[in-house]
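Ops channel
N.P.: pipeline sanity check, posting one input/output pair.
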C-alpha cells in the first residue's frame, strides 16, 4: 500500500487545469459580488436588520454596519486577484476570510452553495493554482508546466463528495415515492415558455425529475472520471445546471459547478482554452501575448505541506454529513446535522411561531410581534428551524430584561408543515427557551415528528 501511495504521489499532470479553475472561479466570484450589490441585498440582508442570527461558536462575528460595503469591496478585489493570479496566495486567503465572514454574518441565509464557495476557496489556499498562466508567473519569470497529480485530483474528489452525498440524500421516501418537494415547486412554474402550463403540471414529470435528479447526482462523478463518457457527462452537467437555474433562483451555483467540472478534462484541453484566452486578450486589449516571455521552468515539489492539510480537510468533508446519525428523531424535522451535508433542495418547510414573554413570579405575560425585531425573510426562516428559534428567544429575553422587565421567561408556540403535510406542533409550549442553551446536544424540546421519512 505504501509503495502504491508513493507511486501515486510522484505522478504529475499539466498545470493548465488548475489555472483555468482559478480564472473561472475568481471571475464568477467577481460577478456574484457585483450581482449581490446591484440587487440591494447588502443593505437588505446585512445592514437593515436589527438582529442577526449567528452560527454556534461564531457569535464573535460582529455586525459591521456600513463597513459591510467595504468588506464586499475587499472580497471583490481579492477574487479579481485570484482570477489573474496576482499575489495569489494572499488573495485567496483574503477571499476565503472575507467571503466566509460575510457568510457567518447571517445564519438565516445559509445555502449549500455559499458553503461550497467557502470550502472550495479554503482548499485552493493549499493548491498551486497560480504557477501557470498567471501574473505571479510572469512577474517572477518562473513557470511550473507540471504539478503533482494529487492537486487536481483533490478538486475532483471534493466535487464527487458534493454530488454523491447530494444523491444519497435523495434516496428517501419523500423524494422518490412522493416526488416531494418538487410536486409543490414545479406547478408554480406555469409561466415558463412552452413547458410551464403543460409539463410542469404533470404528476409523472415530478416523479421523473425526482428520480433523474437522484440518478444524476450518484453517477455524474463516475461519468466525468471515465474518458470515453466525459464529454457526454459534461453535456449533462451543463443541461442539468442550466435547467435547474431556469427553474429555481439559486444564483451562481449552477455556473460554479459547470466551470468546476472542467477539472476532469485533460491538461491538453485546458491548454486550448488558455490559447483562446491569449488570443482574446490580444484582440481586445492589444496585448502582445504571442511573444511569450522566456520563463524558467521549475519542478514543483512532490510532497508540499499543503498535501497533508488537504487530506485531513477532505476526510472531514467525508465525515461531517454523517453526524446526523448522532441525533434521534427525523432529520428533516429537527434539522440536527442537516447543514453542511450537501442536502440540496430536499424539503419544503413552512412554519408559524409566536413567542410569549412571561413574568415568572406574577405570571403576567404578553405576546411578541416578530416583525418588530425581524425582517420578513428572517421570520420565515426562524419559524421552522429550532436553533434559530432558540437564538431568537434568547435575544427577546435579553431585550425585555434590558427594558426593565423582571423574571423574564420566553415560551414559544410553533406549528410547522413539512413537504405538503398538515402542520404539526413543533416546539414544547411548556419549556422556557430562555433557560435553554445552544449546544451540540439533542434539543429535547422539539416535539416528535408524527410521520416517517425513510431513507439515508
Amino acid at each position: 500500500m505504501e509503495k502504491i501511495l508513493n507511486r501515486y504521489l510522484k505522478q504529475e499532470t499539466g498545470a493548465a487545469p488548475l489555472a483555468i479553475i482559478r480564472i473561472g472561479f475568481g471571475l464568477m466570484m467577481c460577478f456574484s459580488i457585483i450581482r449581490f450589490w446591484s440587487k440591494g441585498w447588502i443593505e437588505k440582508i446585512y445592514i437593515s436588520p436589527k438582529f442577526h442570527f449567528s452560527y454556534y461558536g461564531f457569535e464573535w462575528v460582529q455586525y459591521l454596519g456600513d463597513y459591510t460595503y467595504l468588506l464586499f469591496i475587499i472580497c471583490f478585489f481579492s477574487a479579481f486577484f485570484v482570477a489573474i493570479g496576482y499575489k495569489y496566495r494572499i488573495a485567496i486567503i483574503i477571499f476565503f476570510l472575507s467571503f466566509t465572514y460575510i457568510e457567518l454574518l447571517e445564519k438565516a441565509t445559509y445555502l449549500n452553495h455559499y458553503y461550497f464557495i467557502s470550502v472550495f476557496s479554503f482548499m485552493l489556499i493549499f493548491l498551486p493554482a497560480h504557477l501557470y498562466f498567471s501574473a505571479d508567473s510572469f512577474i517572477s519569470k518562473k513557470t511550473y508546466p507540471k504539478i503533482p497529480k494529487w492537486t487536481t485530483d483533490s478538486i475532483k474528489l471534493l466535487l464527487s463528495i458534493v454530488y454523491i452525498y447530494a444523491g444519497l440524500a435523495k434516496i428517501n421516501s419523500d423524494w422518490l415515492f412522493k416526488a416531494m418537494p418538487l410536486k409543490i415547486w414545479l406547478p408554480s412554474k406555469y409561466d415558463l415558455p412552452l413547458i410551464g402550463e403543460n409539463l410542469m403540471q404533470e404528476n409523472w414529470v415530478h416523479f421523473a425529475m425526482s428520480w433523474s435528479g437522484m440518478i444524476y447526482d450518484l453517477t455524474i462523478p463516475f461519468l466525468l472520471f471515465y474518458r470515453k463518457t466525459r464529454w457526454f457527462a459534461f453535456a449533462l452537467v451543463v443541461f442539468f445546471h442550466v435547467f435547474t437555474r431556469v427553474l429555481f433562483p439559486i444564483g451562481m451555483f449552477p455556473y460554479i459547478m459547470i466551470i468546476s467540472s472542467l477539472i476532469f478534462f485533460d491538461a491538453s484541453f485546458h491548454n486550448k482554452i488558455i490559447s483562446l484566452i491569449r488570443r482574446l486578450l490580444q484582440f481586445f486589449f492589444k496585448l502582445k501575448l504571442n511573444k511569450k516571455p522566456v520563463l524558467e521552468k521549475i519542478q514543483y515539489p512532490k510532497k508540499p505541506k499543503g498535501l497533508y492539510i488537504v487530506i485531513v480537510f477532505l476526510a472531514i468533508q467525508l465525515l461531517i454529513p454523517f453526524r446526523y446519525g448522532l441525533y434521534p428523531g427525523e432529520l428533516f424535522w429537527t434539522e440536527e446535522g442537516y447543514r453542511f451535508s450537501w442536502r440540496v433542495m430536499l424539503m419544503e418547510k413552512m412554519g408559524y411561531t409566536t413567542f410569549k414573554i412571561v413574568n415568572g413570579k406574577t405570571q403576567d405575560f404578553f405576546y411578541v410581534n416578530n416583525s418588530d425585531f425581524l425582517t420578513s425573510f428572517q421570520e420565515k426562516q426562524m419559524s421552522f428551524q429550532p436553533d434559530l428559534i432558540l437564538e431568537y428567544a434568547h435575544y427577546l429575553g435579553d431585550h425585555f430584561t434590558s427594558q426593565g422587565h423582571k423574571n423574564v421567561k420566553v415560551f414559544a408556540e410553533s406549528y410547522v408543515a413539512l413537504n405538503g403535510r398538515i402542520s404539526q406542533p413543533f416546539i414544547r409550549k411548556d419549556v422556557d427557551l430562555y433557560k435553554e442553551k445552544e449546544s451540540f446536544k439533542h434539543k429535547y424540546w422539539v416535539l416528535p415528528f408524527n410521520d416517517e421519512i425513510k431513507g439515508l
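N.P.: looks fine end to end. The first strand starts at residue 12 and ends at 14.
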